[in-house]
Design goal:
The protein is of the alpha+beta class. The chain is 50% helix and 10% strand. The protein contains 22 helices and nine strands.
Length: 543
């Protein structure tokens, strides 16, 4: 039942809610901690949110909330800060009193991180639930520019203080030099092999050619390359991420954890306070992490030694799958509209004849007019485990998918490297192979003393091994998205292989993947760039 508001109350509320009389509305012009405090109080009150906002803040003289959405003047800012502090204290009492971590999800923030290495971005993006990262692409901008006389790469402090300093610096700079030098001849080669068609605009063509050149050469960039990223996340996400960064073992990410804590504390202090270095919460996790590492060390001593066979290209290995996958999907499909329990429905599904299954699964696939028509939740009952081997540049793109479980091994030079066909076609393969061979030598030399830090000097062309456990619904989204023509050829191949492996063991379920593109395209971005150019040309001019 909607609460009746006086005209005075409406005037007080108007700046902070998107409407005054509807049952659905948004909060506006309020700090995150105030919104979080309101929602945490909301779950334990019989009052509506507007009434709570009035009672707890706007009509309470001590809160001084009337100044919080205004601006200008030191005095007004100080007054507004009192309201924020009151909300923060209230929020802290709720957290301490109830110990409910879920209220950490009631506020969040947008965090920008500039000049972080490719290694650090992977650790930042490992934390997926509650956060949405966006990373600068290697496809649309050149990474071969110097700033203040040097290329942008991470000068790892432990390496800078070691005997490996000059070796590391010289090698990273040589990789950037090679990348920079190869871009113009690569563009020229692509233009010669794939001339522009009359129907394609010059602007769209040039953007597609440059994107393909950057794609072909990004493997030369070392993992120390500095990039920018943005993350939107809730408080619980950021708090767990801070803990992970502080315990990472790398100087860069440990320092990032401290810097991030300082900045997040300016906006959502109550949400991330347990990520503070001296907090008992972090100390408990540190003890847990040490015990886990000790156990892993003990177990690792009993495992067979590592075997590094000659590199034979990328690999997609379907390790295990559910033999009852079709049965589970049919039972889950019918479950919401049935009075039977799941066990009885699975018994029924096992008895369905093959011809009927063929027809039903075919119809399920036919219903999808495009890849955004996702299959139903029933497809989440089936899971697959893949062991994958692909270059680090491609892994960066595939790692960001949310609904899956993954483990990765450290980046090294021991699984060989990838080289795009365009490199050899442009006559650049000789120098490319030379710098890759030198990378392996530098990596092994540094790894002997700094196994974690040695990763920074590895070019992104070198392969990394990782494992993925994923349900069918998430897999369909992944392989259909990542096999599109505009995608990078390396991860398109991985996506295509994953789809084919599933179709081999589950033909009917594999048939639900209606929008996996198995084609090959010399300029994969061309179609997309032409569409963008046509939109630009057809956009009406502003008067």
């Amino acid at each position: 039942m909607l609460e009746q508001l006086t005209e005075e109350e409406k005037q007080l509320l108007a700046p902070y809610v998107t409407n005054l009389d509807g049952s659905v509305f948004m909060l506006t012009n309020l700090p995150e901690v105030v919104k979080g405090a309101l929602f945490s109080r909301y779950s334990r009150s019989s009052l509506g949110l507007r009434r709570l906002l009035l009672k707890e803040f706007l009509q309470d003289p001590e809160s001084e909330m009337t100044a919080i959405s205004g601006g200008g003047g030191v005095e007004r800012a100080e007054t507004a800060q009192k309201g924020v502090e009151r909300a923060q204290n209230f929020y802290d009492r709720i957290l301490d009193g109830y110990g409910d971590d879920s209220i950490g999800e009631l506020g969040g923030g947008h965090l920008a991180l500039e000049d972080v290495s490719m290694i650090a971005t992977k650790i930042l993006e490992d934390a997926r639930i509650g956060g949405s990262p966006l990373e600068k692409s290697t496809r649309y901008v050149s990474f071969g520019e110097k700033h203040n006389g040097d290329y942008l790469f991470y000068k790892e402090p432990r390496l800078m203080a070691s005997d490996h300093r000059e070796r590391y610096l010289a090698h990273c700079r040589e990789l950037f030099d090679t990348y920079r030098d190869m871009v113009p001849p690569m563009v020229e080669s692509l233009q010669g092999r794939v001339p522009r068609e009359e129907a394609i605009s010059e602007a769209a063509y040039q953007r597609a050619v440059k994107a393909r050149a950057f794609d072909a050469l990004r493997g030369l960039l070392p993992a120390s390359t500095l990039t920018n990223m943005g993350i939107f996340g809730n408080g619980r996400f950021f708090e767990s991420l801070l803990v992970r960064l502080r315990l990472s073992g790398l100087a860069e990410t440990e320092a990032l954890g401290e810097t991030m804590f300082q900045e997040l504390s300016k906006v959502i202090p109550s949400f991330v306070r347990r990520g503070e270095k001296s907090h008992r919460h972090l100390a408990g996790f540190a003890g847990f992490d040490q015990a886990r590492r000790a156990l892993l060390g003990e177990i690792g001593q009993t495992a067979p030694g590592a075997d590094y066979p000659p590199p034979d290209g990328p690999r997609v290995n379907l390790v295990d799958w559910d033999p009852d996958g079709e049965t589970k999907v049919l039972a889950a499909l019918l479950y919401p509209d049935s009075a039977l329990d799941l066990t009885a429905l699975r018994q029924w599904a096992k008895g369905v004849d093959d011809a009927q299954k063929d027809r039903w699964f075919s119809q399920m696939g036919d219903m999808r007019a495009n890849r955004r028509h996702k299959p139903g939740r029933e497809t989440e009952t089936v899971r697959y485990t893949f062991d994958l081997l692909g270059d680090f540049g491609m892994y960066r793109d595939l790692q960001r998918h949310r609904t899956l479980t993954q483990w990765r091994q450290p980046l090294s030079t021991r699984w060989g490297y990838a080289m795009a066909d365009e490199v050899a076609e442009a006559g650049l393969d000789g120098r490319y192979r030379e710098v890759m061979a030198k990378s392996a030598e530098v990596y092994e030399a540094i790894r002997a003393d700094f196994p974690l830090e040695a990763q920074y000097g590895v070019p992104m062309a070198y392969r990394i091994r990782w494992s993925v456990q994923i349900n069918l619904r998430a897999l369909i989204w992944l392989v259909e998205l990542r096999s599109q023509p505009q995608g990078h050829p390396a991860y398109r191949w991985i996506a295509q292989q994953m789809a084919q492996k599933v179709a081999q063991v589950h033909p009917r379920l594999g048939g639900l993947m209606r929008f996996v593109d198995m084609g090959a395209y010399p300029l994969g971005r061309l179609g997309q760039e032409q569409k963008l150019e046509e939109k630009r040309q057809n956009k009406p001019e502003k008067k």
